[in-house]
């Protein structure tokens, strides 16, 4: 579902930032 937000042009950048931070937190 996070990928869908990434595709969004409105909150695309924001989603990328959040997804990146979450990914780093998981690892």
- Globally, the shape reads rod-shaped
Strand runs, count: 0
**How many strands, what sense, and barrel or not for the largest sheet?**
none
Average the pLDDT over all residues and give the rounded result.
Answer: 70
Distance between the termini: 19 Å
Based on CA atoms alone, the radius of gyration comes out at 9 Å
Secondary structure tally, helices:
2
- The secondary structure category is mainly alpha
Helix content: over 70%
Strand/helix succession: HH
Total separate domains: 1
Q: Give unreliable regions as ranges.
A: none
Name the beta content range: under 5%
Topology:
Elements: H1 2-7, H2 12-26
Give a verbal description of the structure.
- The structure is a single chain.
- The protein is mostly helical and 27 residues long.
- The protein has one domain.
- The chain is 78% helix and 0% strand.
- The mean pLDDT is 70.
Summarize the structure in short.
This protein has helices at residues 2-7, 12-26.
Features of the shown structure:
27 residues, mainly alpha, 78% helix, rod-shaped
